[in-house]
């Protein structure tokens, strides 16, 4: 072992953090589903094989929908100390066995107070859109808009959604879970290659919230709706099926931000007060 | 027809220029090969179907190897006037029938003096490299280097290759064809995402020349060779199998530059003097 063991190592378990990247195209999303190929399923199976455990259960920072990609998903899991390998060996063995559309980019031993989901301060996503004729090089990474989009109008409208709101109009309702979130960033810009990109950050997003936010703003970019509509739609707190959710393949889960280790416990109890565990994340 | 016909239309034929984009992953390169799926084969078949011709033979600006991608390949072909459709219809019908890994981005009627290959002033390619752990989101678009690369050393060494040279050391020799080319750009930079990219331009490239140039410079980035070696290798004019050709999947054929229409004929005769048609392009 190259690093000192975290405190709980003495109790026989060690907690690992992994940073995960995947191409969502061939996955039925993150979470385990019987008979479906899911990111969680594929990673857990590989970890169990390499670590010779019956099951290694992993927790993630944010479950992604079918087709959504990730550049900075974060996971944690616990291991009996005696199952542990050298970190470099572990990374190499896991990535050799994982299929080519998913990889662990980094492993580290972490405090057993760390929780990939509840210790997170915020999550960031990127959504990409292109216009014009069909582009084979972008087909799996960006949504193609048939209608020319007004980038400035989209950026301006998005600013009105920032802050602490009940985002029920953009969330699929779940019994007993809150739809109150703090959206801290929703910026649009054009890349050198002419792709329109949205950068979104929030303490957490409800199920399908990013795609619903982007879809609503696209309808403003198309000139079908305006920013006044967006504000009143947010305030209506009711999801309307006519408001389109942007397709999954344009979305990348970019990163998760955590506090320093000394604040894990405080952050987790704060999160649990705000968003009890049966809510989505 | 929305545009005036080019002069030769009176003789019953019309020349079209198409700008083509493809994901090279599932193609055995550009050129027709019996029993193989090639970009030329797929496009010619689709054009023949849409235009109800027995065969529509297309010419391209630069034949690409198996696995190489294109964002700005250019083609031309001739059609009997009576087979011609409205341009918008043509684009829509072709792209509806083409598989999703290839598309015509643009069509235009051009002078019958235009030649996608011989009228070209220059071709530009982009090569992408990433370092660190395997990345599922880059696996089809960038070469992964296991060894940390020195970007500055790569950029500096590349500058020594600029200008008019006999690039025989970087070309597969073909009977009766010249390996003399003018390399006008070979710049390296790092993108915001940490990808190392080379931008290369030349009047034309020999078969596999871009990948051989990039491969040689990578060995300098790895610290295995130095810029003095590169110059002497160029001057040796002999291809050595030990000099690695960078893998095809990191390469994108980016664009082709043409003179204004009034100079097509002059440019074509100039090209034919320098590089007779049995040479590669």
What does this structure look like?
Two copies of one chain form a homodimer. In chain A, α3 (151-159) packs across α4. The first copy, chain A, contains six helices and ten strands. Chain A is an alpha+beta fold and 281 residues long. In chain A, strands 1, 2, 3, 4, 5, 6, 7, 8, 9 and 10 form a ten-stranded mixed β-sheet that branches. Chain A is 24% helix and 27% strand. Chain A has two domains: 7-117, Pseudouridine synthase I, catalytic domain, N-terminal subdomain (Alpha-Beta Plaits); 125-254, Pseudouridine synthase I, catalytic domain, C-terminal subdomain (Alpha-Beta Plaits, 2-Layer Sandwich), CATH 3.30.70. Chain A has helices at residues 39-51, 87-97, 151-159, 209-221, 227-236, 264-274, and strands at residues 13-22, 59-60, 69-80, 102-110, 122-131, 143-145, 163-166, 180-190, 196-202, 251-257. Chain A is globular. At the A-B interface, β4 of A face β4 of B.
Question: How would you summarize the topology of this molecule?
Answer:
The structure is a homodimer of 281-residue chains.
Chain A: E1 13-22, H1 39-51, E2 59-60, E3 69-80, H2 87-97, E4 102-110, E5 122-131, E6 143-145, H3 151-159, E7 163-166, E8 180-190, E9 196-202, H4 209-221, H5 227-236, E10 251-257, H6 264-274
Parallel strand pairs in A: 3-10, 5-6
Antiparallel strand pairs in A: 1-3, 1-4, 2-3, 5-9, 5-10, 7-8, 8-9
């Amino acid at each position: 072992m190259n690093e000192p063991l975290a405190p709980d190592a003495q109790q026989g378990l060690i907690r690992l953090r992994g940073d995960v990247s995947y191409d969502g195209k061939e996955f039925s999303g993150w979470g385990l589903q019987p008979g479906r190929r899911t990111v969680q399923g594929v990673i857990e199976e590989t970890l169990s094989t390499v670590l010779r455990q019956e099951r290694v259960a992993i927790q993630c920072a944010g479950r992604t929908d079918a087709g959504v990609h990730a550049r900075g998903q974060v996971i944690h899991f616990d291991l009996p100390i005696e199952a542990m390998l050298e970190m470099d060996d572990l990374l190499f063995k896991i990535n050799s066995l994982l299929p080519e559309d998913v990889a662990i980019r980094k492993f580290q031993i972490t405090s057993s107070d760390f929780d990939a989901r509840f210790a997170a301060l915020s999550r960031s996503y990127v959504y990409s859109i292109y216009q014009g004729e069909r582009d084979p090089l972008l087909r799996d990474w960006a949504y193609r808009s048939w209608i020319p989009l007004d980038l400035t109008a989209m950026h301006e409208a998005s600013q009105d959604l920032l802050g602490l709101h009940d985002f029920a109009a953009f969330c699929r309702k779940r019994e007993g879970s809150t739809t109150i979130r703090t959206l801290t960033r929703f910026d649009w810009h054009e890349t050198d290659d002419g792709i329109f990109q949205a950068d979104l950050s929030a303490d957490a997003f409800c199920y399908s919230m990013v795609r619903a936010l982007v879809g609503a703003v696209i309808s403003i970019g198309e000139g079908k709706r305006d920013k006044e509509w967006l504000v009143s739609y947010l305030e209506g707190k009711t999801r309307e099926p006519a408001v389109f959710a942007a397709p999954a393949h344009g979305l990348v889960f970019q990163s998760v931000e955590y506090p320093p280790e000394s604040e894990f416990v405080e952050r987790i109890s704060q999160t649990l007060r705000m968003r009890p565990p049966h809510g989505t994340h």
